[in-house]
Design a protein that fits this description.
alpha/beta, 272 residues, 16 strands, binds zinc ion, globular, single chain, 34% helix, five-stranded mixed beta sheet, Metallo-beta-lactamase, Chain A
């Protein structure tokens, strides 16, 4: 399933595997001035390649190596002969997705394995004909995560570094303290428009990000207090979030309240 939205000169494609006419989980791909930012998942790659047909394509940037952001790289490279630029840690995943990023069943159902593609390491900047993007390192959601920031326009493409809403479940490999630090970095840039890897384009990004930081920090402090008192992760999760949400069962516990708590307690860094 693919949906299209034009925001000024930026083209946004919302991509999702659909079952019975409903998109399972949408991820975004953007086209700006010949540059493709993220390329969706294996289940949507044909739709994306057809949707981009006729547009000039001179390069790809992957915000990170998760399977729902890289899967049309190979097809676009074969068609246009372009490079895929990404953080150095992403490159082995692009080359050998099955070996370097084995997927749990729910990830294979939702997104599938990408075909291998060739990546090159990003520098500090990415230039297109009319724009110059700064590469901002934003780990936490994954260790290889970057954002692209266009300072003259105030645009920022944030991949999964910013996800709207109040988290009640998280994956075990996310580092929540690094997520908060990266969100602060993005807020400090005071972008005018934020183009996320899923969800709608944000017109007041700084306010929304600061609100999110406040929520995550406050929750983190309360969780660490209980942790220091010897309360276990599962009990803390129960006190905060009640019963696990359906996503915890669908992902066999990979995405859960308990893992959100664990992300705070395992990765804790010097906050009071
Ligand atoms: Zn991701």
């Amino acid at each position: 399933m693919i949906q299209f939205e034009q925001i000024g000169e930026i083209r946004k494609y919302r991509l999702a595997r659909s079952i019975l006419g409903r998109g399972l989980y949408f991820t975004a791909c953007y086209w700006i001035d010949g540059l493709v930012v993220d390329t969706g998942c294996a289940h949507t790659l044909d739709e994306l390649v057809s949707a981009l047909d006729g547009l000039p394509i001179n390069g790809i940037v992957n915000t990170h190596g998760h399977e729902d952001h890289i899967a049309a790289n190979a097809a676009l490279q074969a068609k246009y002969g372009v490079k895929a630029l990404a953080h150095p840690l992403t490159l082995p995943v692009l080359l050998a997705p099955r070996e370097k990023q084995p997927l749990q069943l729910y990830r294979r159902i939702m997104w599938g394995y990408p075909a291998p593609s060739m990546g090159s390491a990003l520098g500090n900047k990415v230039e297109t004909e009319h724009h110059r993007f700064e590469v901002i390192y934003t780990p936490g959601h994954s260790p290889d995560h970057i954002c692209l920031y266009e300072p003259e326009k105030g645009w920022i493409f944030t991949g999964d570094a910013y996800i709207g809403g109040k988290d009640r479940a998280l994956r075990q490999d996310y580092d929540i303290w690094q997520i908060i630090k990266s969100l602060k970095k993005i807020a400090q840039l005071n972008p005018s428009l934020l183009f996320p890897g899923s969800g709608s384009v944000r017109k007041h990004p700084r306010e929304e990000i600061l609100e999110k930081i406040e929520y995550l920090e406050e929750m983190g402090n309360r969780i660490l207090t209980l942790h220091r008192e010897g309360v276990g992760d599962r009990q803390i999760s129960g006190r905060f979030f009640g019963r696990e949400m359906p996503i915890a069962y669908f992902t066999m516990g990979h995405f859960s309240g308990k893992n959100l708590v664990r992300s705070y307690t395992v990765n804790r860094v010097g906050i009071n």
